[in-house]
Amino acid sequence: MEKINRRKFLGLSALAGVGAWVAPQTATASVRGNTDAKENKMAIRKLGNTGINIPILSMGVMRADNPAVVRAAYNSGITFFDTAHGYQRGRNEEMLGEFFKDKDRNSFIIATKVHANLSSGNFETEYEEQMNTSLRRLQMDYVDIFYAHAVENTGILSDPRLIETLKKFKEEGKTKHIGFSTHANKPAQIDEAIKAGIYEVCLISYNFKLGILPELDDAIQRGVDAGMGFVAMKTMVGGVEDAEGKKQVDGAACLRWVWQNPNITTAVPGFTSFDLLDNCLEAAYRPQLDAADKNYLAGLIEKNELLYCQNCGQCVEQCTKSLPIPAIMRAYMYNYGYKYAALSKETLESSTVNGNDCAGCAKCTVNCPSGFKVAEKIAAITPIVNVPSYFLA
Asked: Are 387 and 345 in contact (CB under 8 A)?
């Protein structure tokens, strides 16, 4: 994204010698705090059949830990804020709760997410406890959208225990709408969600680098025809242009590409500073994709390897140990692209990666279609699971 010279605090790391596992920089200057909506208007789109109408730009709050950035987004006309039960080990929801506690409840939309651990013998009780914990942190009686988080296969969406629990949340007024988020097997999951009949919103990874765009767009159209609304995440392909994570992508161009699909209601980029918010707002106020954007994105497409994993699953089939390589690659992106080490560790832990999974393999058998040097990336990121969480930002 475009860099603007503003005063910034350097992120401090208590973990000496760990290199990239440090806190990102956080901007401290105020920006657009009093933006006049009459001067700068964002296009509004409807979210499926939910009755929700929101601007094309929303906020993925995942990495944000500065309420002033949330305030700037809110004052700029952004109304939809996306968080999750596990983000920052609950502190993300707590920050939003403090910020919104004195705001008109009709002036904003909140979505949160919880992983559906169906392997638990006490799933229903545990899931409800997590939902109640999220509501307490948010200081709210309900969320507008509750997602089953990071669903990877269709069996989860159609599991009767999950379906009945989600229905209960809605009947009890804890959520107004039900959805799911996913990075993998997206066309099949959309079709399964349509079949299940209860999922109203899908939070989906969607960007110009996807290799299955024709199939995915067709599935999204089927979802829209069935009344489902779609929210785009991972729109900036990992946030950097290079595999080392040194050069930021032009987020405005990436967002404009996403908005060319009228079936995508809104995008939730995870901006963490005022400068990044400015870049996203620039795109939202001028959402048309121009020739310069197209040329820029075409250049990135020619680069075989960025940090965004396609979640095609071919790596798992090739791996002699059937490791959850897409999740590991996502953890690599969170650390080296987003500079968010804590989420990287959380992602690995939720996938039961122990940091020594490749032991005994003389040579990696995986040939990634996206050109990822899988063995090198696994070696570079999995040791983070052994780093104490209080050292990670």
From this structure: yes
Output the pLDDT for position 210. Answer: 92
Among 70, 57, 79, 53, residue whose Cα is nearest residue 282 = 57
Give phi and psi for 342, each to the nearest 5.
-65, -40
pLDDT at 105: 97
User: Which one-letter DSSP state was computed for residue 10?
Assistant: P
253: number of Cβ within 10 Å: 22
- CB contact at 8 A, 346 and 92: no
Q: What angle do CA 315, 319, 324 make, to 5 degrees?
A: 65
Q: Among candidates 108, 56, 40, 77, which has minimal Cα distance to 267?
A: 56
Of 143, 261, 268, the C-alpha closest to 204 is 268
pLDDT at residue 31, rounded to an integer: 33
Report the pLDDT value the prediction gives residue 35, as an integer from 0 to 100.
40
What is the per-residue pLDDT for 7? Answer: 30
pTM (predicted TM-score): 0.85
Look at residues 226, 156, 159 and name the one whose alpha carbon lies nearest to residue 191. Answer: 226
Spans in the chain with pLDDT lower than 70: 1-40, 243, 303-306, 393
User: For residues 124 and 121, what is the distance between their CA atoms, to the nearest angstrom?
Assistant: 9
pLDDT of residue 9: 24
Measured distance CA(364)–CA(360) in Å, rounded:
10
CATH superfamily of 26-300: NADP-dependent oxidoreductase domain (3.20.20.100)
Q: What pLDDT, on a 0 to 100 scale, did the predictor assign at position 39?
A: 54
Which pair of structure tokens corresponds to residue 34?
């009093």
Q: Where are the domains of the chain?
A: 26-300, 314-391
